[in-house]
Amino acid sequence: MKLLYHPDRDDIHLSSVLYALSDPIRLSIVAELYKAGERTCGDITVPVVKSTLSHHSRTLREAGVVRVRVQGTQRFLSLRIDDVEGRFPGLLASILNAYEASCSSDEPK
């Protein structure tokens, strides 16, 4: 079985994290994981095909934002909150708060 690359905490770079979170689909994946905890790829609700979801999860994994755990044929995604917060305190919470605020301001009143 092929092992998936996950950068060590010290190898997580701000530019990579910000790039990974700059895409609206990836940001929605991270927001969903933040709320719900570990999820399988099939449980993540984003409007993209499976191959595109794989691309987005790989980008998040290689940036150090998520951890992907393989169990049989399923892949489980979870946020690396401790690692990201250890490197960049408050970054993830700040970005997710801004994301949630922008989503709620988009709703019709």
TrEMBL record:
Record's keyword terms, sorted: DNA-binding, Transcription, Transcription regulation
SUPFAM superfamilies, sorted: Winged helix' DNA-binding domain (SSF46785)
Location of the HTH arsR-type domain: 6-99
Stored PROSITE patterns: HTH_ARSR_2
Highest taxon of the lineage: Bacteria
Keyword Hydrolase: no
Protein name stated in the entry: ArsR/SmtB family transcription factor
Originating species: Paenibacillus hodogayensis
